[in-house]
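Q: I'm writing a short explainer about FdtA/QdtA family cupin domain-containing protein for a general audience and would like to include a description of its predicted shape. Could you first generate the structure from this sequence?
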Amino acid sequence: MKSTIENLIILNIPKIEDPRGNLAVIEKDVIPFKMKRVYYLFDVPSGSTRGGHAHKGLSQFLIALSGSFDVIVKDGKNEKRITLNNPSKGLLITPGIWRELENFSSGAVCLVIASEVYKADDYIENFHEYLRYNS
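A: Of course. Here's the predicted structure. Afterward I'll give you a sentence or two in plain language.
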């Protein structure tokens, strides 16, 4: 089945509230895949864009641990801008969706949980190639 941006969802991360500070937990079936890679983006300079690619088989779960940023997703026909700014919510991006990250606030941290380890051949980094791949 071809991925579309209508398939993308914001998932709530279970949160334990405490007056000393909240705790968010990602375990068991919070995300619909087994975690194989975790990385984070930080100190992104003002005006910089990250991402700019799609994955053939990898799913990702993006969380704004601190600050905010926009995720622009495209499926070849539609485009949507999603602002992430809450560490108890994350965006699930399925394979075959083009994504770009921009408008990072000062001090923003983007945590990415991925379904696969890094594989260069899973990336589509040219939008015209992506359109051919996704048609």
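A: For your explainer, you could say: The chain has one helix and twelve strands.
Q: Perfect, that's easy to follow.
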